[in-house]
Design goal:
By secondary structure, this protein is of the alpha+beta class. It contains 20 helices and 19 strands. The chain has five domains: 97 residues, GIY-YIG endonuclease (3-Layer(aba) Sandwich); 139 residues, no CATH class; 122 residues, Ribonuclease H-like superfamily/Ribonuclease H (Nucleotidyltransferase, domain 5), CATH 3.30.420.10; 178 residues, 2-Layer Sandwich (Nucleotidyltransferase, domain 5), CATH 3.30.420.340; 53 residues, DNA polymerase, domain 1. Strands 12, 13, 14, 15, 16, 17, 18 and 19 form an eight-stranded mixed beta sheet that branches. Strands 9-8-7-10-11 form a five-stranded mixed beta sheet. A three-stranded antiparallel beta sheet has the order 2-1-3. A hairpin with a 7-residue loop joins strand 12 and strand 13.
Length: 627
């Protein structure tokens, strides 16, 4: 969702009852806070609930929240690790008290050694070892290492093998049957490697054989009434199951990769990309694609990959996708050339990588579903609102609405604004500004009459010109007339508009937006009667937006003129009339009104004036062309 359209209360209603990470942003889009949740809906809503007790720091943070986003995960454990990664990457102001990721340990297997060991590690290094984790429980990690060593008889010593085989006596672990005696040569390197491979298989997610073996040993000890041993197996079994929940968010290879998935509905598509750097998911982004209804998944992915990586400076070592690209080999060659070394595009079929792709797809689907809801809300507040107004007034087929406003400080410094809404949305390219030329003093009715006369006269002339040149199909902002005119006021403003339209022989409905004594919209004035409108309706909200926009546009124009020092004299805008002639005209005629009413002959007789200058002044006040 675009930031300017973000409604916190509406977004809170859509939060899922799933684990994940939430990210709070301020109005400048800076990240204020990153947190994890077992249930996103409950956790995020608690920040905005008055009854929830909050620390002073959190209260301060909540005041600054402009919008939030979230990433759904499969478990709280994944959310915890992702939270840590994002905090380390973005260092949000209100996360300073959270623990560093050093609190989460890894299991390290020294596969680069001839007789590998399983070790407890606090960080990942590029030392050719295999890393698993991070995990949330250091105790469970230690128990698992002890368990693996006990089951498979792996060594824990730091001897250099095979160089030091037989140099010293076997340690206590061998004598208590926790080590196979590799330091004495009691197990071959090939057999030892098989045991290590079984450990790697377990750490990669194949827990069933070990869990089954522990359950059998626990049952056997219990049947033999060896209850202390049975309790030990039960506790080890609990530790294994805790580790078996290890998260998928961090990979042990420490490489850079992008995980890409998509979700499609009819002609629309959302592509979700997870960015993994140094083995950690540090962020995600989603992208919209349209016109995909007749494309296969491979075609959608190929189109996205080509467009996205053509414009991004960083190419990861690996792309992980849910299905094969059309032209995968060519894409790999292209990415490899851009990166400078090998890039692999793969479709994981099992294990952690496949689940990461599934997680990306799940988030893409969620974004797409949210967009559907956003589109429904947008239709309600735009087309739905227009239809409400049309039904209320009995005017079918309203598409284009025009509203006008006058802003002035004094006299000829008045300006007018025209704003245009089509299908309930502002069409800013058709907005127009007017400097009032013919009205002296703050006369809003007369100023409005001038604005409307100029607007529709110009439109009529432009239509006639285009029809004469066979350009009738080309429409500018003035040739396209509105289906309804919305006047900022009641009977008086409506009558002014009707007067102008009758004079120009135009038949356009005119509606007044009536305000109460507090200058708030109260109802609509149409066909000489005031029609009430419910304040909570979408039609009422649209009318309020149109009024505010017309007023804002007029005020903004006036301020811009004042800031530039341009609101001095209306004569400043007449081509060919410089300071000397302006001074002479004012001295000769005495007022702007008398200059406006003068004929060409009278203007020519003024000091410093000639035929061309007189024509320019007369044309400025008597021509309906809008500059």
């Amino acid at each position: 969702m675009e930031k300017q359209d973000f409604d916190i209360q509406e977004e809170l209603k859509k939060l899922p009852l799933k684990p994940g990470v939430y990210i709070m942003h301020d109005a400048e889009d800076a990240i204020l806070y990153v947190g994890k949740a077992v249930l996103l809906k409950n956790r995020v809503r608690s920040y905005f609930r008055a009854s929830t007790k909050k620390t002073a720091k959190i209260q301060e943070m909540v005041k600054r929240i402009d919008h939030f986003e979230y990433i759904v995960t499969d478990s709280e454990l994944e959310a915890l690790v992702l939270e840590c990664n994002l905090i380390k990457e973005h260092r949000p102001k209100y996360n300073t008290m959270l623990k560093d990721d050093k609190a989460y340990p890894y299991i390290k297997v020294t596969v680069n050694e001839a007789y590998p060991r399983i070790l407890f590690a606090r960080d990942m290094k590029k030392d050719k070892s295999k890393y698993f984790g991070p995990y949330t429980s250091a105790g469970s990690v230690k128990d698992t290492i002890d368990l693996m060593n006990k089951i498979y008889g792996l060594r824990t010593c730091s001897r250099v093998l095979p160089r030091d085989i037989g140099k010293d006596r076997a340690c206590l672990n061998y004598h208590i049957k926790k080590c196979s005696g590799a330091c004495q040569g009691y197990v071959t390197q090939e057999e030892y490697r098989k045991r290590v491979n079984s450990v790697l298989d377990f750490l990669n997610g194949n827990y069933a054989p070990v869990i089954q073996e522990l359950e059998e040993k626990m049952q056997e000890a219990s049947e033999n009434m060896e209850f202390e041993e049975a309790i030990q197996y039960r506790e080890l079994l609990g530790s294994v199951r805790a580790v078996a929940q290890k998260q998928k968010i961090t990979n042990s290879d420490g490489e850079d990769k992008d995980i890409i998935a998509y979700a499609v509905e009819k002609d629309d598509c959302v592509v979700q990309v997870f960015f993994v750097r140094d083995g950690k998911l540090i962020g995600r982004e989603h992208f919209y694609m349209t016109g995909v209804s007749e494309n296969t998944g491979g075609q959608i992915l190929e189109s996205f990959v080509k467009q996205f990586y053509a414009g991004t400076p960083f190419i990861p070592k690996e792309l992980m996708l849910p299905e094969e690209l059309d032209g995968s080999q060519v894409i790999e060659e292209w990415l490899t050339k851009k990166r400078g070394n090998k890039v692999t595009v793969r479709v994981p079929k099992k294990g952690m990588k496949e689940k990461l792709v599934e997680l990306a797809e799940k988030n893409a689907r969620m974004v797409l579903n949210q967009d559907k809801e956003k589109i429904k809300r947008e239709e309600a507040r735009t087309l739905g609102a227009v239809n409400e107004i049309a039904e209320l007034l009995g005017i079918p087929g309203i598409v284009r609405m025009e509203a006008y406003d006058i802003s002035n400080i004094s006299g000829f410094e008045s300006v007018g604004s025209m704003v245009v809404y089509e299908k309930g949305k502002p069409r800013r390219s058709d907005y127009r500004k007017f400097k009032i030329r013919t009205v002296t003093g703050p006369d809003d009715y007369a100023s409005m009459e001038e604005v409307l006369t100029r607007r529709f006269t110009h439109g009529i002339e432009e239509k006639q010109e285009r029809e004469g040149r066979n350009l009738a199909q080309e429409y500018g902002s003035f040739t396209r007339f509105p289906d309804i005119i919305m006047m900022d006021g009641g009977r008086g403003q409506v009558n002014i508009a009707r007067k102008v339209l009758d004079r120009l022989h135009l038949s356009i409905p005119v509606c007044g937006m009536v305000k109460d004594e507090n200058h708030r919209t109260r109802g609509l004035f149409y066909n000489n009667e005031e029609i009430p409108i419910h304040r909570n309706s979408e039609g009422f909200k649209l009318i309020t937006r149109i009024q505010d926009e017309a007023h804002r546009f007029a005020i903004e124009y006036h301020r811009s003129l004042r800031s530039k020092g341009q609101v001095k004299s209306i004569l400043d805008d007449i081509e060919g009339i410089g300071p000397a002639r302006r001074k002479a005209l004012m001295k000769h005629f005495g007022s702007i009104e008398r200059i406006r009413d003068a004929s060409i002959e009278e203007l020519r007789e003024a000091p410093n004036m000639n035929e061309r200058a007189a024509q320019s002044v007369y044309g400025f006040f008597h021509t309906d062309m809008i500059k």
